[in-house]
Write a structure and sequence with these properties.
Distance between the termini: 49 Å
Number of strands: 9
Helix content: 55-70%
Largest sheet: 3 strands, antiparallel
Number of domains: 2
Strand content: 5-15%
Shape: globular
Structural class: mainly alpha
Length: about 400
């Protein structure tokens, strides 16, 4: 594929026009929009949800236990009937975890579709708003987990275990929004490049071009080498996917507020993509260096080979944990500073007022730091993926030839 420079800007490369053409090519890793759609298909599965129906009764609350034992469980409880102190941990977990509704402000929330498949009764589809009135269609929402119930209000464990929650949760909805945004941005920009062939980019084209050139020159070329082109679609996709969802997670209102890249299932699938592409693209030289590194004594290989094989699996694991921990940790710290206002306010109104400016200052400071982390984590994930690809496709003929000459010299 030939890269053509724009006549008015000799240093700018018309990369997006290539991406527009790539979506018609199903060979290798050149199906750029298909990667985004693949993310949508994979993430829209129950894997996106940290909670699943198969584990929904693993740690029930005391009221649920009473219901299992045959006692009636109250369906709803009015807030005025129960006065509790502010629980910072519960508030933080509620904000960073997945949900069956999209909270807006106060008691205002957008209900999301509930889709449950039971191996015996089939599909049940309804709105999560029905749970506000109690049980519905034989199911109950207990601490954001759906369990099956009997007519007398007790939990049906057998039916719960045979049910699978594939609902459109907040994380899944955020995923679909970010995928739609990515498709709109790249397809529109690629189309603009095609219509304005030979002309200098403008508008969104001018904004996207330096970022794409940075990923191409400073990440792909520097880390992979001459074979970088085949990996560019994936590297571009994963960079902008992580970046957009990191930024959307910092927006406290719709369509932001979802902690998508702070979901361990999402980061696991992203790391799994890197692992599969690395393993599929790896040359025989790469696997020889993993299993039996040339020039190393056999007794050393007994120690080195297991370490190298373990490293093959540790690399994607580190990718998964790093992104998850950094994004989730930042959200927890910001929410912790906000919680201090309410904690001190319960002790004394004066303490609450005094702690407010300090807490808000640190919360704003952490939000600015999170903005930096949003870009940094997208860059780190993309860079490490490119490094792994580069190590997989790198040829070691020179090194192996050097070891052979050394062995021949020792023999003579």
């Amino acid at each position: 594929m030939e890269l053509k420079s724009l006549p008015l800007r000799p240093n700018s490369i018309n990369l997006l026009s290539q991406i527009h053409a790539m979506h018609c090519n199903i060979k290798g890793f050149r199906l750029f929009p298909a990667f985004i759609l693949a993310f949508a298909i994979l993430f829209s599965s129950p894997l996106v949800k940290a909670d699943s129906l198969s584990t929904s009764v693993a740690a029930p609350d005391s009221a649920s236990v009473a219901a299992v034992q045959g006692e009636a469980m109250p369906k709803t409880e009015h807030p005025a009937e129960k006065s509790e102190k502010f629980n910072a941990g519960e508030m933080i977990i509620e904000h960073i975890s997945d949900s069956h509704e999209w909270h807006i402000v106060g008691h205002l929330a957008i209900p999301l579709p509930i889709i449950i498949y039971n191996t015996q009764s089939g599909f049940s589809v309804f709105s999560s708003a029905h749970f506000e009135e109690g049980d519905y269609a034989g199911y109950r929402l207990v601490k954001n987990e759906i369990v099956a119930v009997n007519e007398d209000g007790t939990i049906n464990e057998a039916r719960t275990k045979s049910s699978f929650d594939i609902s459109i949760t907040k994380n899944v909805a955020a995923l679909l929004i970010s995928v739609s945004l990515l498709l709109f941005i790249f397809l529109s920009v690629a189309s603009a490049y095609k219509k304005r062939a030979g002309m200098a980019p403008k508008g969104m084209q001018s904004f996207m071009e330096p970022i794409i050139m940075f990923i191409r020159d400073d990440i792909a070329k520097a880390s992979i080498g001459p074979k970088y082109e085949r990996f560019m679609p994936f590297l571009l996709t994963v960079f902008f996917f992580i970046l957009i969802n990191n930024l959307m997670g910092l927006i406290p209102f719709l369509p932001g507020g979802a902690n998508l890249t702070g979901n361990i299932a999402v980061t696991m699938v992203l790391a799994l993509f890197t692992f599969v592409i690395t393993s599929y693209s790896a040359t025989g030289s790469y696997w020889r260096h993993v299993i039996a590194m040339p020039g190393v004594p056999p007794w050393v290989l007994l120690i080195l080979t297991p370490i190298e094989i373990l490293g093959v699996f540790l690399r994607p694991f580190v990718l998964m944990v790093r992104l998850f921990a950094n994004i989730t940790g930042g959200h927890i710290i910001i929410l912790s500073f906000i919680s201090l206002i309410f904690i001190f306010g319960e002790m004394s109104t004066g303490l609450g007022l005094g702690a407010s400016p300090v807490s808000l200052f640190f919360a704003i400071f952490m939000s600015c730091l999170e903005l930096l982390v949003a870009f940094l984590q997208a860059y780190v994930f993309t860079l490490l993926s490119a490094i792994y690809f580069g190590s997989a496709v790198e040829e070691h003929h020179h090194e192996e030839h050097h070891h052979e000459e050394h062995a021949e010299g020792a023999h003579h």
